[in-house]
Amino acid sequence: MASLIESYEQQYSNLTADITYNISRISNTNGAERQKYIRQAEKLFDEVTELLEQMELEVKELPSKDKQKYQTRVKSYKTELTKLQKDTRARLLDNTETLDRSTRKLEHGYRVALETEQIGAQVMEDLQGQRQTIQRSRNRLEEMNTNLGKSSRVLSGMMKRIIQNRLLLVIIGVILVIVIILAMYFIVKRKT
């Protein structure tokens, strides 16, 4: 019987080593891989619990001289298992809190990204409106420039006519003065 309990103790040692390994992997992994280690650790905890129950049953069958020694060991194993379970829960809670913080940060980042996208869309809309305003202003300026060109040509034509008219008036005035002078000359000559 003692050899069977020693075999159980060896199994217990192997299982707790596997549990410790899986617990350490839980902290260092993410996603599906992390879930795999959690499931493996839970399965190992169930196996260890069953193993300790088997050990307790075997210890009850031992002679009283060995019974006390093995009961103390089983009690120690149970305490150790409880501590491992608490450690596992603590790590899972820490990881859950870390995930919650990361989730909150991601949600905040997502909200900021949405706000930025909305602001960007508004800026684009404003820029589009300003572009249209500038385009309309440019079209008006081109229209005004065209109209100014036409006005300039009309004014130039008018200035040419004014100059021509003044020149014509001067020529007519000179001719009139010459005619008047000649008329006076002929009048004076007839009188003399």
UniProtKB/TrEMBL annotation:
UniProt entry keywords in alphabetical sequence: Coiled coil, Membrane, Protein transport, Transmembrane, Transmembrane helix, Transport
Cellular compartments annotated: Endomembrane system
Main location: membrane
SUPFAM superfamilies on file: SNARE fusion complex, t-snare proteins
UniProt domain T-SNARE coiled-coil homology: residue ranges: 91-158
Coiled-coil positions: 34-87
Record bears the keyword Translocase: no
Transmembrane regions listed in the UniProt entry: 167-188
InterPro entries: GOSR2/Membrin/Bos1 (IPR027027), SNARE (IPR010989), T_SNARE_dom (IPR000727), v-SNARE_N_sf (IPR038407), Vesicle_trsprt_v-SNARE_N (IPR007705)
UniProt cross-references to Pfam families, sorted A to Z: V-SNARE, V-SNARE_C
Top-level lineage group: Eukaryota
Keyword ATP-binding: no
CDD domains (UniProt xref): SNARE_Vti1a
UniProt membrane topology term: Single-pass type IV membrane protein
Recorded family membership: Belongs to the VTI1 family.
Protein name: t-SNARE coiled-coil homology domain-containing protein
